[in-house]
Amino acid sequence: MTGPQNHRAGLPPNGPEYSGDLCAVIRNRAPFTVTGRIELKDHKRATFRLARNKTTRLCLTGTTYGNYTVALVVTNFVTMPIFSCYTTVDEAIEIFARPNGEGFTYSATCR
Predict the structure, then answer these.
(1) Is the pTM value of this prediction over 0.85?
(2) For a tag site, which of 56, 68, 102, 109 has the least CB within 10 Å?
(3) How far apart are CA 95 and CA 100, in angstroms?
(4) What are the mean pLDDT values of the chain's consecutive 10-residue runs (111 residues total)?
(5) What integer pLDDT is reported at residue 60 of this predicted model?
(6) Nearest-angstrom CA–CA distance, 91 and 88
(7) Facing residues of 83 across strands?
């Protein structure tokens, strides 16, 4: 495959985990509505559907991946993953999409 590719998360990071309540703020900076989910190590998840320039707060209880991270997964309209990464929830997670020749390339503030 050639051209820009959307990132898919590999192995979760090593490091300390956290078990308990946590919340994530997600902002859509893409020029259209995006859907996706936040996932935890113990398979707990919270889904979102965000219109352009909107923000939501998702809260759930469970265990994070290493280094206190969660998985951010951006999905298409049939919920198939098109972008994913591991990130912390101590700051807002912003999702971006920029046009490429055949569609869009997604990115996010993954830390």
Answers:
(1) yes
(2) 102
(3) 16
(4) 60 93 97 97 96 97 96 92 93 94 90 85
(5) 96
(6) 7
(7) 74
